[in-house]
Amino acid sequence: xxxxxxxxxxxxxxxxxxxxxxxxxxxxxxxxxxxxxxxxxxxxxxxxxxxxxxxxxxxxxxxxxxxxxxxxxxxxxxxxxxxxxxxxxxxxxxxxxxxxxxxxxxxxxxxxxxxxxxxxxxxxxxxxxxxxxxxxxxxxxxxxxxxxxxxxxxxxxxxxxxxxxxxxxxxxxxxxxxxxxxxxxxxxxxxxxxxxxxxxxxxxxxxx
Length: 208
What we know:
It holds the Pfam family DUF218. The protein is an alpha/beta fold.
């Protein structure tokens, strides 16, 4: 029989590994928002933008898989405009369907606008550390990534959960699957290793 204490340690191991958070937010060249079917994804972007930490918001995501007549990034752009953020302060990528495509399809738009991108604030769900690595892989000039995380509602029942309550949520299997998938990608070298520091995520130096 698995003891409650042992189960709690396993849960902590999973949460620690998939957790995208890192201490601090700082000045950045842009804010990058991964595609999402939920409007909540833009709240951290608006907050960071209004704080003056970055002058540009990159919105990604193509047709919403639940509402195909809606484009995720367009929905997010309209929400930001309703909060007073001007269209010229956003780049909108409208074709992507995966995290990798979010970055790949946004990259040409970013490179047309900016000469070099060294630092990014990325908006991700708290358990989507994988997307931080995907961003680093797709934007190789980036040296530092700050994470602005948000807590999604569970897909099955819509109940909110966070780092402290995920294990009893209906999304538990998704997060356990994310743990195994990210572990595999990193061990195979499919994603670049990153270090969680007191000032965001940075690329891990060889031999470190």
